[in-house]
Amino acid sequence: MAEHDYIRQTPSERIRNWILYEMLRGAGYAASVLVGIGVIIALIYIVSLFLPDESKNAPPPMPYSQMIAPPDTAISRV
């Protein structure tokens, strides 16, 4: 570190300010990642608004991804 202390901080003030700076920098990184994810989701939503309705109601591409269970035909006797 430099020998000149222009803002006249004690060592404990200096380490406290450094810790605060590091935590705020990490919070800034986290906020930018969160905003980036939000922008990507918003872009996907905007693109989906331009798609025709038929593409939103299309059958699933895998035939077994929407299996329907057979109806229960057992009669209960009480």
Description:
By secondary structure, the chain is mainly α. The chain is 55% helix and 0% strand. The chain is built from two helices and no strands. The longest helix is centred in the middle third of the chain and has 39 residues, at 11-49. The model has no long low-confidence stretch (mean pLDDT 83).
The largest β sheet comes out as:
none
Taking pLDDT < 50 over at least 5 consecutive residues as the criterion, the unreliable ranges are none
Q: What's the β-strand tally?
A: 0
Mean of all residue-level pLDDT scores: 83
Helical run tally = 2
Structural class: mainly alpha
The secondary-structure element order is HH
- Dominant shape: elongated
- Rg over CA atoms, rounded to whole Å, is 30 Å
Q: What amount of the residues lies in strands? A: under 5%
Distance from first to last alpha carbon = 87 Å
Give the proportion of residues in helices: 55-70%
Summarize the structure.
By secondary structure, this protein is mainly α. It is built from 2 helices and no strands.
